[in-house]
Amino acid sequence: MHTREEKMEAFGRLLDVLDQLREKCPWDKKQTNESLRPNTIEEIYELCDALINEDQKNICKELGDVLMHVLFYAKIGSETGMFDIADVCRMQADKLIFRHPHVYHPSQVGAEIPRPLPYIPETEVNGDEKREFAEAKTSEEVLQNWEQIKLKEKDGNKTVLSGVPSALPTLIKAYRIQDKARNVGFDWAKKEDVWAKVHEELSELEHEFDRGDKEKATHELGDFLFSVINAARLYKLNPDNALEHTNQKFISRFNYIEEHSIRAGRPLTEMSLEEMDALWNEAKLLENK
């Protein structure tokens, strides 16, 4: 792989290219935070596609596109005199150091190249350097500390759940809400206990379906989905990834049916459900070969 110097040289080259495009390209000249936002969202989803498909070539490509957007926003920030990419990097480094008291000493915030210092027990620290967070030896303990540390930050979250972006897709948002609540101790005592809640919510949903009350059924559907996402989290499964795998599986099988109909010269609308089910099962068998 590349040396540190080569990485810094490549990063600087990209900054130079962006500077030139912002000055000389008509499209790049007119971009604003607002105009770039939809493209940024699209780039993030393209990266997510590459990640879930484990497409290493496209992961590299899409990371470049996302990085370009990060640099572009920083470039716009520098043009207003508010911040530039150095401020972005320094702020992120300081935040990571502050949020990892099990690795860095608080005094190292702002250090150019901090070297991790050993954890200092609270009883051995005096004055302003007193530590308020326990030593974290597992990833679970790190996450629990993080939520408490964020609330202590000057510009950090004011409440535990305020750290969940409102614009997140609903499925991911539900997972993050539950995860953040867990990090401060609000969770099931035993993961197996969640199934009673899932069954309860499903029963209430079925009841509202039977009654034909669409509004109440909508609320109960939300409660049921939330409980299923909760179960996935407790069993350490990512529901968003799981659903996307199922989406891709459905697309593949349905495309098999459609390709067969095209070869047969028959529109899908003229095929019976039994015929489509038979082709669906064929596609399933092919997946396992």
Which word captures the global form? globular
Oligomer kind: single chain
Number of strands: 0
Distance between the termini: 36 Å
Measured by DSSP, the beta-strand proportion falls in under 5%
Overall mean pLDDT? 86
- Give the helix proportion (percent range): 55-70%
Q: What order do the helices and strands follow? A: HHHHHHHHHHH
- Rg of Cα set: 25 Å
Question: Can you tell me about this structure?
Answer:
- By secondary structure, the protein is mainly alpha-helical.
- It has helices at 4-24, 26-29, 33-52, 56-79, 85-98, 139-152, 170-183, 194-211, 214-234, 239-264, 273-287.
- The two termini are 36 Å apart.
- The model is unreliable at 117-131 (pLDDT under 50).
Question: Main traits of this protein?
Answer:
single chain, 289 residues, mainly alpha, globular
Topology at a glance:
Elements: H1 4-24, H2 26-29, H3 33-52, H4 56-79, H5 85-98, H6 139-152, H7 170-183, H8 194-211, H9 214-234, H10 239-264, H11 273-287
Helix pairs in contact: 1-4, 3-4, 7-9, 8-9, 10-11
Summed up, what is this model?
With 289 residues, the protein is mostly helical. The protein has helices spanning 4-24, 26-29, 33-52, 56-79, 85-98, 139-152, 170-183, 194-211, 214-234, 239-264, 273-287. Mean pLDDT is 86; it is low at 117-131.
